[in-house]
Write a structure and sequence with these properties.
The chain is built from 9 helices and 7 strands. By secondary structure, the chain is an alpha/beta fold. The protein has a single domain, classed as Alpha-Beta Barrel (TIM Barrel), CATH 3.20.20.140. β3, α4 and β4 form a beta-alpha-beta unit. α2 runs parallel beside α3.
Length: about 240
């Protein structure tokens, strides 16, 4: 976290949203979820003015996930759910219990998505799955993390589902990504993310800073939209916003 803050300072990044601890395991046990969430909470408590925490849950462990939400969000320092990257797709019925608990505190849900040419990994979600889940829960805000990687398809898939935002993190800094997202979704539904340390802050910032969109749109993408999504849960937790 010390190194990440130093890197963020060089690029004028005010806050990080931290999730998953050190985990690269897409089939986490309940015990692993708790360990990784503990790591994130230690980081957030050490840098309370620079980092928000996001709780790592799994539809493979729905009842445990509700308890973990209570521990980390309701009673702890975390402010949202995800990035969820586990061994069940997010459209499964088991996700409803997690979403309903998040909705009780107006916490947004960040869901990993990908569209792989050779087929997704077992249990790996796509933007189609996020749309299906979001349509079951129209009052909850979802973020389609990576916009499926194949962003030209991902943007079109989520376009008509208004409670789903596009996250631009994790893919190459390709010209046209942000422009298409703004054109098809509106700037209010596009969110910057770094996917650090899988990617660099700089490469992901370049998608926004180099985009041919108005400066007002860039401000929304780089911070305004996430502030808006987090404001209800921050107020529910008693923060002054």
């Amino acid at each position: 976290m010390t190194v990440l803050i130093e890197c963020a300072d060089r690029l004028g990044i005010e806050r990080l949203l931290v999730s998953q601890g050190y985990s690269a395991d897409r089939h986490p046990t309940a015990d692993q979820l708790r360990v990784e969430n503990d790591r994130v909470m230690r980081a957030v408590r050490r840098f309370p003015d620079r980092a928000y925490g996001s709780v790592y849950l799994s539809p493979a462990h729905p009842e445990f996930s509700v308890q973990e939400f209570n521990r980390c969000v309701r009673d702890g320092p975390m402010v949202c759910v995800g990035e969820l990257e586990a061994d069940k797709r997010c459209n499964v019925p088991e996700m409803d219990l997690i979403v309903e608990r998040a909705a009780s505190m107006k916490a947004p849900i960040l869901q990993h998505t990908w569209l792989k040419a050779g087929g997704n990994d077992e249990g790996e979600s796509t933007p189609y799955d996020v749309v299906e889940l979001a349509e079951r829960h129209p009052g909850v805000q979802f973020v389609c993390v990576h916009t499926g990687g194949d962003w030209e398809r991902g943007i079109r898939i989520i376009r008509s589902t208004k409670n789903v935002c596009a996250d631009i993190a994790g893919s190459n800094p390709t010209t046209g990504f942000v422009e298409m997202a703004v054109r098809e979704l509106g700037a209010e539904r596009v969110i910057y993310g770094s996917d650090v340390g899988g990617r660099s802050f700089a490469s992901q910032l370049s998608k926004v800073l180099g985009a041919r969109v108005p400066d007002a749109d860039k401000k929304l993408i780089l911070g305004g939209n996430l502030r808006r999504l987090l404001t209800p849960v921050l107020r529910a937790k008693g923060y002054s916003v």
